[in-house]
Amino acid sequence: MCSIIYELLISTVSSYFLGDSVRQFSIIIGFYLAAMGLGSWLSRYFVKDLMFSFIWIEIILGLVGAFSVPLCYIYFSYADFEGFNIFILGLIIIIGTLTGLEVPILTQLLQGDKLESKELSDVLTLDYIGALVATLIFPFVLIPFMGVYKSSLLFGFLNIFIGVANFIFFRSMIERTRKRDAILWTVSISFIALIGFAGFRANQFIDNWNTSVFKHPVVYNESTPYQNIILTDNGAEFRLYLNSAIQFSSRDEYRYHEALVHVGGMQLPNVKHVAILGGGEGLALREVLKYPELESVSLIELDPEIIEISKEFSQIRTLNEDALSDPKVDIINDDAFVWLMANEKKFDLIIADLPDPTNESLSRLYSISFYNLVQNSLNEGGAFVTQATSPELSPSAFWCIEKSMIESGFKKTYPYSINVPSFGNWGFVLASKQEMDFAIRPELELKFLEAESFDHIFYFPSDIKVSEVESNRLDRPVIMKYYLKHWRSLHAEKI
User: Which residue is catalytic, options 233, 353, 455, 463?
Assistant: First the structure.
């Protein structure tokens, strides 16, 4: 049970840091199973004092498992992507090998005790049931209530506790000497004390790590079943990060959200009914509420915690002007793709303010199938706009989004970009079923967009135009490959 938890924890941390969750989980599971095979093969060399060997394996596994996540955090701060990949594979090979030793040794112990095959099968059945329990408590209990760091320490402690319990209850099966007993007790107590100290200082460690990674002091850090949420505040600037990726800065978020909402919205004859996919912090919603003719807004946010903190934190409420409490707003906690499949209402404007495509689940929100669903929910004269990553740092991903929109059937697409100091050059793609003429609506009283903006936001220099890209499909999420390739190369340059 414990080793399954370690495997899931390392896979999750790897996905947080590197993206591409399917790849990370697949590689780690594969190496974990192979290492278990190696452990099973090595078990042939354990022929004497099997119970004592089993106890030591539990204790060592507990230590490695307990500090697997803390070591990942520390190593990621200093290593490049390749180095981090090698490190986590080394960890999982150690854990898998130790786990692979357990079952054969346990089997030999049971056979030596002359237990019947039924009793042996009962033990293995309990082992598999434990694996099921582990996979269920991981997403529903550990991640939302403890987080990856404290979970690894907890299960490391349990591993060592199991080893010590076996030593106490099965001491008659062990070749005991005073020296061996003293070493085992000293090591076990030392490891438990070390884990206890790490647990006691866990919050301080995480805060220090966040301080080394993030620009400003961290004021909120929680993991939900969907993502890790971090808020930073230095008094002059407030930021939101999801899975370590910045979502907005109070210093310049108005630029991003005005460009996201109004470049398309101002060209429509009426903006009466709007759907916002993502954007649970309410900043795009604030801009939508500026349209005097607006009648209703459906805000589709997967993670309820984003909504809650955006209502609770005064810094966010000040920024979004309490938009989430407006009576015109209907907040729906659902996956955008699933919601669009079931939706029967038509909208004048649909806005996708979604995270970047770092994994398969997010990549489907930039797919041809997704854009087909969007069109089904648009009025005949309606428009759709999405954030589209950076055309400068992730050009292939940016142009992949536009190509996917075109292939989904949108008659007109308008890629554009603006400068957001905290993001850099950031891109969007606007799409509609008919051609648009671009103009400003002065009554909206915008801070950033003006009539002259339309003279340059649609211009892209030739060095960031990419023509040879594939469209993004549900069964082939190439956008994730495009996005992560550029992101990782940028990170490598910083290292």
Answer: 353
Domain match, 275 and 143 both? no
Are 32 and 99 within one domain? yes
- Asked if 238 and 319 count as a contact pair (C-beta separation under 8 A), the reply is yes
Last residue of a domain, one of 246, 265, 294: 246
CA proximity to 426, closest of 391, 385, 384? 391
Are 300 and 424 in the same domain?
Answer: yes
Give the tens place of pLDDT for each residue, 388-421. 999 998 999 999 999 999 999 999 999 999 999 9
Beta strands in 341-485 (DSSP E): 347-353, 378-387, 412-420, 424-432
Q: Are residues 272 and 180 in the same domain?
A: no
Alpha-carbon distance of 408 to 373, in angstroms, equals 9
Residue numbering of the annotated binding site? 227, 257, 281, 301, 335-336
Whole-structure pTM value = 0.79
Decide: 396 and 411 in contact? Cβ < 8 Å. no
Cα(2)–Cα(58) distance, integer angstroms: 10
Give, as one character, the DSSP assignment of residue 453. Answer: G
Residues 149 and 222 reside in one and the same domain: no
Residues 6+ apart with CB under 8 A from 1: 127, 130, 131, 133, 134
pLDDT per residue over 67-85, tens digit each? Answer: 999 999 888 877 767 788 8
- Any idea what the CATH number is for the domain that residue 387 is in? 3.40.50.150
The reply to whether 176 and 225 lie within a common domain is no
CA angle 6–12–18, rounded 5-degree value:
130
Catalytic annotation present for 252: no
Q: Which residues are documented as binding site for spermidine? A: 257, 281
DSSP 44-113: GG--SSHHHHHHHHHHHHHHHHHTHHHHHHHHHTT--HHHHHHHHHHHHHHHHHHHHHHHHHHHHHHHHT
The reply to whether 239 and 312 lie within a common domain is: no
Co-location of 25 and 60 in the same domain = yes
Long-range CB contacts (within 8 A, 24+) of 220-228: 220/309, 220/313, 222/147, 222/305, 223/143, 223/144, 223/147, 223/148, 224/143, 224/144, 224/303, 224/305, 225/139, 225/140, 225/143, 225/144, 226/302, 226/303, 227/303, 227/355, 228/16
Q: Can you say whether the dihedral through the CA atoms of 259, 263, 266, 270 is positive or negative?
A: negative
Tokens of 127: 């082992």
Instruction: For 263-292, write each residue's pLDDT tens digit.
Output: 999 999 999 999 999 999 999 999 999 999
- Domain range spanning residue 225? 215-246
Q: Are 337 and 365 in contact (CB under 8 A)?
A: yes
- Distance, CA of 64 to CA of 98 (rounded, Å): 10
DSSP assignments along 299-362, one per residue: EE-S-HHHHHHHHH-HHHHHHHTTGGG-TTEEEE-S-HHHHHHH----EEEEEEE-----SHHH
Pairing verdict, β 238-242 and 228-233: antiparallel
